[in-house]
Amino acid sequence: MSELSVDHVLGIKYLTPQDIQLIHQTADQFKEVINRPIKKVPSLRDITVANLFFENSTRTKLSFELAEKRLSADVINFSAAQSSVKKGETLIDTVNNILAMKVDVVVMRHPNPGAGVFLSNHINARIVNAGDGAHEHPTQALLDSYSIREKLGAEVMVCGPATLIPKHIEKLGVQVELDLRKALQWCDVANMLRVQNERMDISYFPSVREYTQQYGVNMELLQSLDKEITIMHPGPINRGVEITSEVADSDQAIILNQVENGVAVRMAVLYLVASKIKRN
Ligand code: CP
Description:
Layout: H1 17-34, E1 48-53, H2 59-70, E2 74-79, H3 91-99, E3 105-110, H4 115-120, E4 126-132, H5 138-147, E5 157-159, E6 175-177, H6 180-186, E7 189-191, H7 208-215, H8 219-223, E8 230-232, H9 245-248, H10 255-279
Parallel strand pairs: 1-2, 1-3, 3-4, 5-6, 7-8
Helix pairs in contact: 1-10, 2-10, 5-10
The structure holds phosphoric acid mono(formamide)ester (CP).
């Protein structure tokens, strides 16, 4: 198989295992490219990509923009904070105005779950979801899985306060553990997720201090485990909350490898999505 089964990359749940494998294999080739002295290839020449960010981002925005430039795409950037969205313009009107400028691919971050799916049903461009609120962040998941690819097919456990664990999550085939030490003792890789205060309209735990005491990873805890585990974090890191600086900057952490892999994975996603446009 050399093409994706989907026209848009809206979420992991829409991808087949073969799509994920194809993205990872394509990312291998682009990772080699971005480590050459000349890091640019002409794969997306004549393709215009709009990066629409309706919510703040550092890593994802920069990573997509770099991936697009490495592929020689024409790139336009839109940030809601400095736009007519502030004057009450709707998502569809904003995007249709941008598409009138002949954009082929839209990379969009939006706080509303399902915003990418909504857009894909209303506009004639390929959509890549760069995070839709509390829902999906598919390229983050793809770069995370790429970074620990030899462990694909692994058993998964989620750990945190019961208030933050989605109801019925077991139905996805994961185990739930409320005790951090037990979870760390069980795993080979721990992906430390940020407490997303911006999405919390109520208090899910008594205080940040208590959260850190129960669910923060520090060196003492890591060194007390039976084996050395790998630490991941998607960023941005709340240093001293879910992870100490000592752990984040240690040899056990692969956080900056994730960032590097993110560019290669996003190059792969953009290349595979754009390849389908050219053939239609
Ligand atoms: N990991 C991640 O999505 O970071 P940003 O919010 O900075 O894009």
